[in-house]
Amino acid sequence: MDRELHAVLRRAAELVRAGVAGDPWVQLHGRLRDPMVVVHPWGDAQSWLVPVTAGDRMVGYVQLNPDLQFMRYVSFQRVRGSLKDTPLAADWLETERIRERAAAFARPDEILDEPVLTYDRYPDRLAWRVQARSTDGGTREIMVAGDMVYEPVQPGDVIGGPGNQGAP
Amino acid sequence: MGKIELQEARRLAGLELNGLAITGAIAVEEIGGARVGARGTTIYDPSGEPLFYRVPLHRGRGRIGFTDVAADEALGEPLLATTYGAAWDETKIKREAMVHARRLRRNLRYTRIRFVAYSYPKVAVQFLHGSEEVLMLEWGSWAKVPPASVGDRHPMEPGNFERWSLLEEMPDRVRRANEESFRARVGAWREATAVRAFRGLDTLRVRPDLVRIRPEMIRLFGSRELHFSGDAGTHHPCYELTGQATSVWCVAASTQMLLAFWRYGYTQDRIAQALGLGTRAHPSGLPYSRVGDVVTQIEALTSHALDATMVVNPGFNVFRDEIDENRPLISFIPGHSRTVAGYYYTILHLPGQLAFRGLLVYDPWPPNTGTIHRYENFNVQTYQYAYHAHLTLV
């Protein structure tokens, strides 16, 4: 791991240890995984995401801005100390799994690029973007957020998005 | 101009030193058992105003160092510096200064001696005849401090060995900000020590036992989550996360969470219908032109049992006050909606560090599952609208 990733991981660990991110259960049982870059739709780095897992489950993640300022700790645990209903870590962290989900949504003639960790229109809506290329030269984006796979629409003057999504 | 009396300064010094030990900024081995001395030396600004107090630190019968505590709110924080190893003995220093003064001027006549921060924080000994200065010697080097020059320089940018007044050169804007910061710090200590266990405690001593039992003794942060009722002592946190059913129904899911807290068990589809957000097959978000609909529908869906309010650009206190009243909020940030069910903020933090303020956010994103943000840094988010509701009582 390079020096920058080490610094990100160290900062996230400090925040968890200090109790600013997570809770005592996360301090005890959570495992910090390798930091990942979240990019803006135009490709620049938007933030650092440090996943927290317990066994094969995704417990949450620490999000830092590029200056390593703490943005938030996001928990998938509905109840403190419980892993019930938490997603599989692979669903959020393994690009092959993300790609498979996108492939199930894609048309037979579409070829998929590598998934990119980004967000759906607004930075708080974390999702993977998979570019799909059809044989006629057309492209479209497929978004994967956990078990939800959909085609995004352009931002409008709307909270949540203008709609027209496909069924999940 | 806010002045601090010596007794209050000593009290603040004791609290600050205990705070530094508690937060680990200074080692307990170094400061543990130290006691803030009963007497302090007033160090004046060249303008003649008291600037800070230099107070000896004792351990047992020995002096282990000294601490400088603000006498003027313009300094921004109560505790200015703490020095170990070098003892502060006012009488001895004055005697030494007199010897050096006689060497410079055999016939020096003066009526009193005081200490002056001639170039803060550098200290000098000032000899006065009545109210007139007759000599000023820098402490330690015993060099004669020249009179203030009327040089052509920017304020607060003195030369290497120059007499200048911190209080007179400080820009008004900085002074006001510092005074505000000082009062906030004193207020934080008032809040931190308001617990019953603090009453009658001798905080002039840095206590290793106080450090050990810190959570019970000092409130380092303020925090609250929604409970079943306002009685947080006997009830568990009481709030449930709901994921948004489509990728654009964050407002519907947020409204569902708020209504569920008040025991209104509407489905997300029903709320989406009321808010005009379409169906699962053809959903849409809420246009900004209709943000007021959230208020209308919360009231309509509860037959006006809930009285809802929308706040534009809400500050942290809006969230804190509502949570303190045991009521959840809906929070709109650019393009997205979530709910807020708690808060956390630091009361005590080290001088120079930013205070942390965070919200406990129940976010319907990602769809179907949702997430809980414990915590979202309030300082790095944009809060556009907040909605809260209270029960209409008869």
Describe it for me?
The complex is a heterodimer of chains A (about 170) and B (about 400). Chain A is of the alpha+beta class and about 170 residues long. Chain A is about 20% helix and about 35% strand. In chain A, strands 1, 2, 3, 4 and 5 form a five-stranded antiparallel β-sheet that branches. In chain A, strands 6, 7, 8, 9 and 10 form a five-stranded antiparallel β-sheet that branches. Chain B has about 400 residues and is an alpha+beta fold. Chain B has a domain at about 215-390: Cysteine proteinases (Cathepsin B, Chain A). Helices cover about 25% and strands about 25% of the residues of chain B. In chain B, strands 1, 2, 3, 4, 5, 6, 7 and 8 form an eight-stranded mixed β-sheet that branches. In chain B, strands 9, 11, 12, 13, 14, 15 and 16 form a seven-stranded antiparallel β-sheet that branches. In chain B, α8 packs across α9. The two termini of chain B are about 50 Å apart. The model of chain B has no long low-confidence stretch (mean pLDDT about 85). Chains A and B meet through β5 and β11 of A and β10, β13, β14 and β15 of B.
Spell out the key features of this protein.
heterodimer; A: 168 residues; alpha+beta; 5-stranded antiparallel β-sheet; 4 helices; 22% helix; disordered C terminus; B: 394 residues; Cathepsin B, Chain A; 8-stranded mixed β-sheet; 7-stranded antiparallel β-sheet; 27% strand
